[in-house]
Amino acid sequence: RGHTVVWHSQLPSWLTSGTFTNDELHALMIKHVTDEVTHFKGKITHWDVANEPLNEDGTFRQSLWYNQLGSSYIADALRAARAADPAAKLSLNDYN
């Protein structure tokens, strides 16, 4: 199981301190998802694509991804993972 592809935590400083347009950030996220899932295609068959995007009260977690791209980042990440490995099982992971 691949855990995790897109998360609000453990992001590199070049990403969190960067000044990216929405389009640039979206392209970076899609490239990351595509590269990671493609690299492990056939070896990892189940991915936690988006990790902990919600708060305990069910609202969206304030994160780099949500704050700049909105909630659609989750579906976009899932679509990119599906395109990279159509056979993989995909999940949105949360601890609650």
From TrEMBL:
One of its GO terms (biological process) is xylan catabolic process. Pfam families: Glyco_hydro_10. Coiled coil: none annotated. GO terms for molecular function: endo-1,4-beta-xylanase activity. Residues 1-96 form the GH10 domain. InterPro entries: GH, GH10, GH10_dom. Its EC number is 3.2.1.8. It catalyses: Endohydrolysis of (1->4)-beta-D-xylosidic linkages in xylans. PROSITE patterns: GH10_2. Keywords: Carbohydrate metabolism, Glycosidase, Hydrolase, Polysaccharide degradation, Signal, Xylan degradation. Belongs to the glycosyl hydrolase 10 (cellulase F) family. This is endo-1,4-beta-xylanase. It comes from uncultured organism. The lineage of its organism: unclassified sequences, environmental samples.
